[in-house]
Amino acid sequence: MDINALKKIQYGMYIISSAAEGKMSAQIANTVFQMTADPVQFAVSISKQNFTYELMEKSGKFAVTAISEDATFEFIGKLGFKSGRNINKFEKVKYEISAAGIPVVSDFATAVYEAEITNKLDMDTHVLFIGKVTDMKIIDDSKNTMTYDYYHKVKGGLTAKNAPTYVKR
Amino acid sequence: MDINALKKIQYGMYIISSAAEGKMSAQIANTVFQMTADPVQFAVSISKQNFTYELMEKSGKFAVTAISEDATFEFIGKLGFKSGRNINKFEKVKYEISAAGIPVVSDFATAVYEAEITNKLDMDTHVLFIGKVTDMKIIDDSKNTMTYDYYHKVKGGLTAKNAPTYVKR
Prior knowledge:
Order of helices and strands of chain A: EEEEHEHEEEEH
Oligomer: homodimer
Number of helices of chain A: 3
Largest interface: A-B, 55 and 55 residues
């Protein structure tokens, strides 16, 4: 088993955000994908350690922001490597509260999506949430959504410990 | 809801293959993801219409090939747009039968993986299979795994009707 083979799987880079009981948070995720076409359903894998996970469990809702290639390292670092339990991740970040009451980040975004959780699969360290997409729009179609590969190769990015794709060295 | 926003989600391009009861098949998939890091588990979304789905259900095993950017349109078309019920998809395709008895395609590959199905989630038109990775290796690290975006923009590729990401026009 060559663990380096895992690097040959392609992902996009996304922000997952949620809110419940007057609190809101967001995190970086790379495992977002469309599961079915009719209705449109997304799957996202979230670590049970993350504050966003708690808010998703409580509210049954989440938003997804597809991050553009021009997103700065600082922007990703702020959203991805600290816990929303301790800091306000939305400070100096452009977002709006949707009709469903979820913060949707539109900074460095190619597109945004909102979903209602319809199912979930317990994966021990992570939970795979299935969400029916209730709203979606393009923010900037002229830009590509950042791939994980681009993040590593061009941006020199790191992987957070709670990521599904974290590899212990 | 702007359905075009779905195009801003990034995917890789993969071959999923399986075998059971003396038959084997393969198909193209774009929804392959690492779900957990310890143990390494993959998730793949497969249409119930596909022959590979039947073989995965019967054998409980599958292989994944990450397709390189230099894969030809003919190669992808052969594996992706016809059913393994009617044609032999492995004719003139480089593959080997693994110790677990599964055909693993190594043509136009950056890496290959083998997995045992540990869980699944019924998504109506599709099934999300969770598989524990039992073997993996890099075939060609000098090449990038083709993204779905690359397939569309550079290769001018089409989307099969049974794909999770198919959009009716």
